[in-house]
Write a structure and sequence with these properties.
This protein is an all-alpha fold and 137 residues long. Helix content is 69%, strand content 0%.
Length: 137
């Protein structure tokens, strides 16, 4: 990494630290709750900082693989479809007394749901693209 990227690295660290510190002291925000922690303004500030962090990181990506492009173009479908998958997972698998198992299972389930979403999107693009808002070419 060259020296001219140094200010960008500092910005990344600042945004990451802001998000982490705000959510640590303010408490997490929950869409299902709904909850914004102790202070709604701190929650919004953390959201903006996190968004700027993601923009900064994603602007550095030079080559985007095809599967990432496919997933990125169909996020509305993923927002809908992952809830269907989560309803099943939440009712079947939850170990209240073991937080570390829940974290591990959450990561595994996320990867499985992402793969299922990807396969569903691929099949829908081939068979029924109109469901995804696309016209077959």
């Amino acid at each position: 990494m060259s020296l001219h990227h140094f200010p960008d690295v500092i910005l990344l660290l600042i945004f990451a630290a802001l998000v982490t510190l705000i959510y640590y002291y303010n408490g997490p925000s929950q869409m299902i709750g709904p909850s914004v922690g102790k202070d709604v303004l701190a929650n919004y500030f953390a959201g903006v900082s996190g968004t700027l962090l993601v923009f900064n990181v994603s602007s550095r990506v030079k080559h985007v693989p095809v599967y990432i492009k496919r997933i990125s173009r169909n996020t509305l479908f993923i927002i809908f479809f992952h809830w269907c998958c989560l309803c099943f997972v939440r009712k079947q698998f939850f170990f209240e007394q073991y937080a570390w198992i829940n974290i591990l299972l959450g990561i595994i389930y996320s990867m499985i749901i992402l793969c299922v979403n990807y396969l569903a999107i691929k099949k829908l693009e081939e068979s029924w693209p109109l469901i995804l808002g696309k016209i077959k070419k």
